[in-house]
Design goal:
With about 270 residues, this protein is an alpha+beta fold. It has a single domain (about 5-110, about 120-255), classed as Pseudouridine synthase (2-Layer Sandwich), CATH 3.30.2350. It has six helices and 13 strands. The strands form two sheets. Strands 1, 2, 3, 4, 5, 6, 9, 10, 11, 12 and 13 form an eleven-stranded mixed sheet that branches. Strands 7-8 form a two-stranded antiparallel ribbon.
Length: about 270
Amino acid sequence: MNEQLDILYLDDDIVVIDKPSGLLVHRSPIDRRERRFALQLLRDQLGQRVYPAHRLDKPTSGLLVFGLHSDAASRLQQQFRDRRISKTYHAVVRGYLDDAGRIDSPLSDKREAIEKGGSDQVRPPQSALTEFRTVDRVELPIPLGRYSSSRYSWVELKPHTGRKHQLRRHMKQSAHHIIGDTRYGDGKHNQLFRDQFDNRRLLLFATQLCFEHPFETGRWLQLDARVPAELQPLFDALSWSRLDRHGVSDIDPPEQFLAEPSEERSSDIGNSP
């Protein structure tokens, strides 16, 4: 039987799935060995072509939007560029993060030669803004390094720009690395979660999207994705409630989108966190 993706929303123009961790959005020269892609799986499942409106990193799970025709994808991509799509993520990070705050730190964008077909190209650092809110914290009686215990936070992250790997890099900059991040994370804490909880994935989840339907003017949608059920034992061990909102609802336009779009544009809005 062909693999079936979890479809949260489907109409004549768009489809939204809950992408599992470990699945690439589409073919990429960065991972030539991979043979599974959300684009192809969804195409086969629906029996028609689909067009990605944005991307998520392979290890990140959660909400991923496709157009069912190129015009729908183009209009959604424009909303991402205009920053008129609200994106919310949740993550498990090392340490006790502040109750709330923002990380306003520019990020450089070094593109691998394999992506560009030539030498590495580096642009000047681009503005990058992430808001965060701590939902819960835990201190585990597990020694690590020079500490007699280990602290972790369950946090909500809202990127207002879309730089490459923005959330993972911003959390590294703040010394609150996302657990399971093998590129920007802290190996000691990743190992602790492997040993204690058998966790071998990135604990970063795209949990909510709010946007205006590309062909129904004034209709705003809110999509919510739950934290995967297989992580319930981990959340039980940490004494945290696992995020369980799942589905779609019509909403009033979010307040931040009632004003005219900002003149500032980001060419990287479609990039993954």
